[in-house]
Amino acid sequence: MLQNGRRIRTLCYAVQNLCLNSSGLLTRHQLIKLTQRSKKDDSSISSLFIPVPVKPTPDDINVGVELTGSLNKADLLKILNKFYQKKEIKLLLVENGLDNYLQHQAYVSFRRYCLEAQTLPVDLHVVISDILQGAGNVTDIFPYFLRHAKQMFPHLECMDDLKKISDLRTPANWYPQARAINRKIIFHAGPTNSGKTYHALERFITAKSGVYCGPLKLLANEVFHKTNSRGTPCDLVTGEERKYADPSGNASSHVSCTVEMTSVNTPYEVAIIDEIQMLKDPQRGWAWTRALLGLMAEEIHLCGEPGAVDLISQLCLTTNEDIEIRNYKRLTELHIEDSALGSLDNVLPGDCIVCFSKNDIYSVSRGIEASGKEVAVIYGGLPPGTKLAQAAKFNDPDNSCKILVATDAIGMGLNLSIRRIIFYSLIKPIMNEKGEKEMDTISVSAALQIAGRAGRYGTQWEQGYVTTFKPEDLKTLKTLLESPPEPITQAGLHPTAEQIELYAYHLPNSTLSNLMDIFVNLSTVDDSLYFMCNVEDFKFLADMIQHVPLPLRARYVFCCAPISKKMPFVCTMFLKFTRQYSKNEAITFDWLCRNIGWPLQPPKTIIDLVHLEAVFDVLDLYLWLSYRFMDLFNESHLVRDMQKELDVIIQQGVVQLTRLLRNSETGVSSGARAADEDEFALNRQKQSYLREPKSLIGRGRLTERLLAQGILTPNMLQELKKEWNKGDSDGDDDDDNEPKKMRRKRKIK
């Protein structure tokens, strides 16, 4: 009853806090969603606990048999079934934490244990013997069954401890050092291009010490250079890079970092948390929440959308801190045009066409270049150096490139001289609450962020314009841009390594992915302020390396690696890194070269370019790991040089994007792949191929197998055919002095 009462109170509280529709009533969809969020299915939680096999311990002397005689298995089965069918037994089991699912699992195991064991524990053997002889009751089995169930499911002994560990209702209390400071919170709220970050940075640069926490490496890098150029020594800290203002490597009092790398143990005078609205992000929101609650700074300047003000104010109530809100307006005018672009022939200098897929990027770029106009291209998968090079080309008034084609990667992190933003589409893949991708119209926040890049203050365009490519999208765009940003209602949280280690102590037989599942399902958060960030990517990596023997803390760190599970090559290299680490073998420069196919060639097709981008991500992964496992990933300086070379190669490919698309359609051979396969496979195995029988050169089973495995490439096959044909002709001339007519006759026979 108590548990049901709690659920009803939770439901009522959630109803009070849920936004009502225009009629003041909840919609059916909202009610369903609310019920799903407020109620955790006990059976689904129980199914997360993987049973530990309970095996009998054979003894040389079967004391039970000596005391009471052997047991008849058929009679034993009847007693066990009778025991399990009793209602009072089921109620007792529920009181001890076993729901129907766990009861069934435990009974099947207990029955098998009793029937198949050569030797039962003496106490259990005697009790069953008494029951068979009428000197006991079947309910006497209960303590032995419960003992077996607790061996199968260790969580039954420690469920209260597990729930305490995953109680996340007061995350502000996780940071006692921050709570001990009387922090001043200043929220700079305003749209894109309103100068909010500029004012915060001015205070940061003039402070005695400070930290800037940004959402992207590019932004952290920009603040790093800007601060140093103003005469304030500032260090750079990202997941993959450390730069010191002092050449001798001494730490400066100012740091510019990505938000995940923020230190909550270092005191500062001033801290800036940029794009604070990102605490709503399903994957990364926890990092902004941690920075906001945990930074040890006298002044904390938050920069972001007005939609985050209410949530930040509520979070400040939990930390007993006051908040000062400074509102900003856009510095330049932004006009929504009355007509859509309609055709790529209508693009003008200073235009930026925003796409939400790589395919659209490719087709739009090709379409514009077909009309003789040069295009700069920026999307998320490009290396930072390539993005900056493309941005510089587009921004340069003396450069012939006047058109930009980009994804929403331009929404933050790059200073671009854009006159007009053109939305090629308003449909974008988004991540839902379950971590699944769905196609949906972009949010008001995203539309304002992207559109706001037009007519940026300080560029050659004093006014900004925005429109759509398709006429039917224009009305939707106007509605989005005229709406206030959606209010942000919850901030993200994520399990820490320490919490998962405590779980592993109580559940030593569970995998890391399983521990994370159990933690998320048992966790208790204040739904009015927080949500649990999506852990699907973490679990994906944990499952991938589960078979690799690693200490739990190292396994946790590997699974936090910032890689995309959609890139098979990067995932493969991630697995190879973990295997090398588990064998305590250094991941050397030579080893890396062999596995990525270095040196790489300029791309000839789009597939080549995508592969090179994946290789760059692998090098990024190496650098990320080099700061966490310095002993085995110890050649970061060489890898950084490789990245610089690869960045140049990728830039060459992006500049020739249209040619790559054309080559992809006409079937031109893969340049990057050839470097990957031919450089190593050909050099090591060419001689053995030449010594093989001539059947290798045809299309026999062996050839097909080698092609399928990637050991033999079509290029190599063609080359080998030529060499064999040449060898045959040489043999005809030199090996035999027989007349050709004789040879012909022999063939006829």
Which band does the percent of strand residues land in? 5-15%
CATH topology of the domain at 333-482: Rossmann fold
The biggest sheet amounts to: 8 strands, mixed
For the largest sheet, list the strands in their spatial order: 4-3-5-2-6-7-1-8
The tally of strands reads 18
State the share of residues found in helices, binned by percent. 40-55%
Structural class: alpha/beta
GO molecular function, one term: RNA helicase activity
Protein name: ATP-dependent RNA helicase SUV3 homolog, mitochondrial
Family: Belongs to the helicase family.
Keywords: ATP-binding, Helicase, Hydrolase, Mitochondrion, Nucleotide-binding, Transit peptide
Structure commentary:
The chain has 749 residues and is α/β, with parallel strands linked by helices. Among the domains are: 52-152, Rna Polymerase Sigma Factor, Chain: A; 183-327, Rossmann fold (3-Layer(aba) Sandwich), CATH 3.40.50; 333-482, Rossmann fold (3-Layer(aba) Sandwich); 561-665, Up-down Bundle (Methane Monooxygenase Hydroxylase, Chain G, domain 1), CATH 1.20.58.1080. The protein has an eight-stranded mixed beta sheet, sandwiched between helices. A six-stranded parallel beta sheet has the order 9-16-13-10-12-11. The radius of gyration is 33 Å and the shape is globular. It starts with a helix and ends with a helix. The model is unreliable at 1-41, 671-699 and 731-749 (pLDDT under 50).
